[in-house]
Amino acid sequence: MPGLILDLDDTLYPRDRYVRSGLAAVAHHVAARHALDASTVFATMTRATALEQPRAAFQAAIRCHGLPADCVAEL
Predict the structure, then answer these.
(1) C-alpha distances out from residue 15 to 8, 10, 23, Å
(2) What local confidence, expressed as pLDDT, does residue 13 receive?
(3) Which of 15, 35, 36, 68 has the most CB atoms at less than 10 Å from its CB?
(4) What's the whole-number mean pLDDT along residues 35-60?
(5) Alpha-carbon span 12 to 62, nearest angstrom
C-alpha cells in the first residue's frame, strides 16, 4: 500500500535549516562558477529570503552580483 508523508510546521525537519542549507549549496556553486565570494552571495540570498518570498533569493543574487539573468534555471 503506497503512502505519503507530509512535513507540516517543522515536525520532521526544521524548514529554516533546510532552506539555509540549500542556499549555501547554491552560493558555493555560484562562487565556483562566477568567481565570487560564497559567503557574500549566501548573505545576499538569506536577506532576500527573509524580506521577500523565498524564490526571490536567486533574483537577488543575480541583481546584486551581476550574474547573467538566464542563470536562474542553473541555480
Answers:
(1) 9, 6, 12
(2) 76
(3) 36
(4) 87
(5) 32
Work out the end-to-end distance of the chain between its first and last CA atoms, rounded to an integer number of angstroms: 36
**Average pLDDT, stretch 70-75?**
83
The pTM of the full predicted model, rounded to 2 decimals, is 0.77
Q: Which residues contact 21 (CB under 8 A, 6 or more apart)?
A: none
Is the backbone of residue 6 left (phi > 0), alpha (psi -120 to 50) or beta? beta
Amino acid letter, residue 54: P
Alpha carbons within 13 angstroms on the beta-carbon side of residue 69 total: 0
* C-alpha cell at position 59: 533574483
> What average pLDDT score do residues 39-66 get?
87
- In order of 5, 8, 15, 22, the CA distances from 2 in angstroms are 10, 20, 25, 28
